[in-house]
Amino acid sequence: MGMTVVEKILARASSLSSLKAGDIVEPKVDLAMSHENAALVINQFLEIYQGTGLEPKIWNPSKVSIIFDHRVPAESPKTASNQKKIRGFVAANKIKKFHDIRGDVGGICHQVLPENGYIKPGFVVVGTDSHTTSHGALGAFAFGIGATEMASVWALGCVLNVEVPATIKVNVTGKFKKFVGPKDLILHLIGKLTAEGANFKVIEFHGPTIKKMSTSGRLAICNMSVEAGATSGIVPADNETVRYLREEAGIKGKIHRVVPDNDAVFERIVDIDVSNLEPQIACPHTVDNVKSIKEVKGTKINQIVIGSCTNGRLDDLEIAAKIIKGKKVAQGVRMLIFPASARIYNQALARGFIGEFMKAGAVVMNSGCGPCLGIHEGALGDGEVALSTTNRNFKGRMGNPKSEVYLCSPAVAAASAMKGVITDPTKIKL
Amino acid sequence: MSQVIYKLGDDISTDIIYPGRYMATVLPTETPQFAFADIKELNEKLNTKQVPHGSIIVGGKNFGCGSSREQAVSALKGYEIIIIACNFARIFFQNSINLGLQTITCPEIEANEGDELDIKGGEVVNKTSGKIFRIEPMPKARQAIIEASGLIAYTRKRVMEKASMR
User: Fold this and answer.
1) Cβ-based contacts of A76 with chain B (< 8 Å)
2) Are residues A122 and A191 in the same domain?
3) Of A2, A17, A272, B32, which residue is the least packed, with the fewest Cβ within 10 Å?
4) Interface pTM (ipTM) of the complex?
């Protein structure tokens, strides 16, 4: 019987010749990523060894990565102390794939890992972050786990008792209209599947539209697959994957492309034609509350956010800069820009995007998770409304349960920033 | 027999269970105070110790969706409450098993605040309404971790086995 990409990856990582959805395996991990929650992982890791008489030892420090991104620079003494504790652990355990708060190599974990060549097709990647699904963009099986599970991975090098997930195949055809793109596709898909429609399942992306899509776009759609509940999103490795890994991630060695068998068994096949897709908006307070822009245009906005692990990449900033160039952010609107990594920030600076944003009145912040999770910057006031290129609009997400968050593409966010209301970028004159 | 102390709707996210602004707090001894911090009534109920161990919170579909933050589980575990929901989001569900928070998948559950429920033999019996609801059995892969009383103990066992093989 044929296998899906994830079945093949799990078979290899579990030293099995074949397996199928529903089987229980213990796959070896190729990369284990944490961010500031490594503070909790460390506690749990040490607890595993308590009373054993054994020295706590990470199975393979070269396969562990820690990136500071959630609260950078630290918003409180508590966070600063957690970060300090992690730095000590990193040094003591010789963890090299560590990215501190820096303007050259720092950034959001889901951008830092791919751009540094830490992810390869066929890898099993786990991260203590739900958006670890992002790395499926490079043909890896990547999924989010909790801190205790990560502690277990640090100790053993494998994930215990994994049930092989069933796969939903999504076949995407058609050419996007101008200013419509990957974010609109994934919002549309989440609306269609619902927030629990892919729970415990993998979404495998196929079709000519995906073949033509940049790795940046693929990272965005795999990133948000978890918003349909998916364990992981994945794009089987192709020429674009190899191009990205060679040219942008600096990988020199062999790259194995893992592709599904022709007779792979999918639980369900979903076909989407994007030719007539309008910009999509996820309305408060669930990500599957997706509407076409026609239904919500004109909604007044107080804060625009462009950035995050979903849409803070160079092409996202480019499209926003193109729209905002020579114009002004509307009075009474705050526009916040968060490049996904320091590398992207520097590229955007060199390309002149940062200057355009600032001239228009936007505030450009350091790379990090920023206001997306409502911890330390860009909080909303009571009754305020944000329009954001991030990935979640749950009640209270941006730090205030009395506010509302709408989710959109960078093009919609930039067009709306100028008008102060939700605006269709396909309808504006540049 | 246990009492339902609160009823929640569908898609209760980890931002509702444990808001992001408390994420710098990681110790299981400290997280419970922030459980459902933005649902004042429920948070007060939990914090003022009105809730005996084994009390029940009922949710709808997709309970625990969103972030992988384990605080959302350790905060509830601190009160030793039971969560019954139509279904759970994957990471929350796995974290619950790993930390020993009792989660019960009960697709058709109907229960209101104050109802008395009896959980036994694969069923939830609502003593107040007289209705009986089927419990979805726990997948075998997860049962092993529950039987070892959580992932720390389970991993410890594996680490010891590995060491003794050397």
Assistant:
1) 24
2) yes
3) A17
4) 0.97
